[in-house]
């Protein structure tokens, strides 16, 4: 599959964009005309630079408002087009995107449009140029790819074909199966874009909210399969208008874009081997659970105190590194004081258990995810480590056959056996933060690279703005990672680790006896809980005396409490009763307000 | 008019919100239940604090999903309600907002809903509470205020009335004239919110994009007049859910909110004196033009050099201040080196000419706009100065009768007479920057306080993201102020002053001879202009040799050039031919890319 990307997807100057695309591994680019116009490189210089970078110039775009016009306007449009063909000759580009007329069409006739495209094809032939005619979703008369194809058939000119763009087809709800009726040799170009489900006018949606494949809600795997079945073998290109990508560094965005094409190819090959052939990427594999969470700080003593209060046991010091291990039930927390000069406690790593680490590692690596170096001594277990878009490292560990603890635990010495009766089970969820720039890429990483399910987007009010939240999780719920996007200003980055319990009140009771200071929950909250859920007074008093919060839905109940923040982390203990599957979202504003009060009191 | 505001409009803790509202001059507040629940103040403490601040607690809100339910659910809902009535008694609030049922209604019957509200009314009466029933725009059965009113009539209970919310009525396109058929004594509450025109689902629109009155597109003056004609004399309250206000300092937002109610009252009084009585605010008055632009810097020599190259004349040094005046045609630029230690040149003030300065000053002052102190010596002309939401100060100057220069020019000495044949006329526009936090307030300031017209929102691509742009201008176009909102990251704040010319090529020619270095325009731009507008080669060469840009629309042509940036300002000279009324928006990306190249070259 030849990969390509439109320069409009990225920020920066045309030179910067070209370098970023080459670096990320794209085979070619689409030259977006305004990028050319604003560049001080001549077309010849751009061509030479692309050659040096090993990039093909696949498409010149867009040419607007051509067909369905009066004869007089047609003449002017042909002159406009010829000037572009001359620039294309200088650039060495042989295909131009012609979008269906939005502004100047006055003749709603396939025959007229076809005849006009035929004249354009004649003109283009003289320059060796091919016309890729595309139906814009908001074209005045031509807004359906099937109609564009009919017009191309009527034009019946070797230099006139069609361009398919997933956004224009799927945003209108048009059935992409009809693509298979198109002659693959007449599909002159293919553009892919994903998008979130939004109900807004299709033009704004298109111009500001497109996403790379796999980051939105379109079924692009099925779409690509339809196109491949036509025999199309041209570039698979990305055209993604997005306000965020326009602002973020072009290098990062290009890597993200390239990975999205690879994961799409993988998904398409798995689901539609008849169309795409077998995947070249190793199989997806669901992790068996969260192995450990790593917290890094110059001084981890406050974290250790909290873990002890919660019922964790100290399991030992690493043989060779300034790393300590605590555990409770199946939850292991690694405290790392290396490379952490001046750092407050923060979440620095997440270990996932895999039945077949090697295949998982090969898959992640094949999908362009950068590896992280990890110094190792002889006799230590190898834990492959990768960078994540949101910050902490991802480690892959072998799930021990028949349960029990993974082998690397034996590298820790001078510790104690796990405490009995901790009432703690395993990691319930790890609540992480991604910035607004990296959020979609993060969700894509867990979704398309690791195969997690993506939940809906929620919003929670904090005193400093709305927190957007989205959960990625394995299908069986063993691994759950809610990701928060904080408001632009004010909010301190805080992540937290939630542990399951079969008796959250007992855990809270023990923690209090051991001196833990809980996150204070206001009395008004308990008045509200009593009223909202019609609970009896004694039960509410019990919750209140333990500072335990409550939620209920149609399927069950949820009890949970929070520790205070230690640097940028805190802990939560949760008890799920019945089929409750949420995270106590209604309680999150209460937590955020309480944390904010503590910050204000501390003058933070 | 008693003013009120829902606490959900503001950021921060409930205490912070209350203080901000009192400070801004609100008479009362609506207590948003989640703010209460998350607060560690008891209801009694909140009540006492409100009393001390001089705020009334006008409304408890919201109570959801009450009516149209089965008998069993009704019982539970009545228990839920009673718990709230108890909290309200502690708070001393006598009115509760009951929103039409969204989630649990199963009975679509006005009679059933009315009977259920009547039972709620009986229960409420025992606590001295009034029920204000409101149709949510997305209510399951009740989504129209006329239906909510019908149900209230059927309920026929002294403690059951209706609440009107402009958003829920106008967002659905319902005719607000029907409000006049409601008995004013049965309107228990009034909430106002404006909103931009957006085509998105009404729930998202409501939850994230509401605006204060005058900042959006709703006709709230007419809406308020309908309500006042019913005899309603309760609070006029703001309920504005907005992602920006949730993040910005509550003090600033509260002042902005309060001003929006005052300007709305003024507008309503002017347009509908039968309903609102006469306005208490002095009349609106259109300015006669831009008097001067002030640029401040520690060292203004680079700006003076550019002004001289453009054809400006040095008009003198101020008698007592480190301020110098340059002019060309009717354009005066004041260079201020006072209080500017370490500052790069930046736009610091804007003077507007008024026929009646005193009335204009009284109006602006009456609308809560903060005055700026301005030291004055004896014999100097008084120029009232105000703070603007976007930064630079606004000065008001007396428009000289019969044209000519304003009196304050005589305070400058040792200058020269204006140069003849400058080909410069006056200020065409002053292009300003507002932050995303202050943009809506800025547009409201020029619109509702000063009476400018608000243009549509445009977007321009820069190498670092999209620049949002909106023009405010006087009806006759004498004062035009385009406001840009820069992308969140990277873009340097740059404002510019555009001057009219009757011969932009001559001005460019002279400037070049005097040594000006223009903003370089790439050759590709001229190839594109030639093709796009079908211009002849010699004309394009002429433009190119002067680095002059070109635009054309159905009404005329536009020629313009830019100087390089000097600190945070630059100059533009424009020539409007025929009826061209735009700003060369298609050329803005070319300018932004060229500026970005210069920045990169300079290592900025």
Automatic annotation (TrEMBL), chains A, B:
CC cofactor: a divalent metal cation
InterPro entries from the entry? Answer: DSD, Glyas_Bleomycin-R_OHBP_Dase, Glyas_Fos-R_dOase_dom, IolE/XylAMocC-like, Xyl_isomerase-like_sf, Xyl_isomerase-like_TIM-brl
Provide the top EC class: lyase
> Quick one: which residues bind Mg(2+)?
429, 496, 572
Any idea which UniProt keywords this protein has? Carbohydrate metabolism, Dioxygenase, Lyase, Metal-binding, Oxidoreductase
Query: Which residue ranges does the record assign to the Glyoxalase/fosfomycin resistance/dioxygenase domain?
Result: 438-533
What Enzyme Commission number(s) does the record list for this chain? 4.2.1.118
Domain named Xylose isomerase-like TIM barrel: residues: 20-250
Query: Single GO molecular-function term?
Result: dioxygenase activity
Q: Where on this chain does a divalent metal cation bind?
A: 134, 165, 191, 239
Q: Give the catalysed reaction(s), semicolon-separated.
A: 3-dehydroshikimate = 3,4-dihydroxybenzoate + H2O
Q: Which PANTHER family match?
A: HYDROXYPYRUVATE ISOMERASE, XYLOSE ISOMERASE-LIKE TIM BARREL DOMAIN-CONTAINING PROTEIN
Question: Which family does the entry's similarity section mention?
Answer: Belongs to the bacterial two-domain DSD family.
- Function comment: Catalyzes the conversion of 3-dehydroshikimate to protocatechuate (3,4-dihydroxybenzoate), a common intermediate of quinate and shikimate degradation pathways.
Q: What is this protein called?
A: 3-dehydroshikimate dehydratase
Source taxonomy lineage? Answer: Bacteria, Bacillati, Actinomycetota, Actinomycetes, Micrococcales
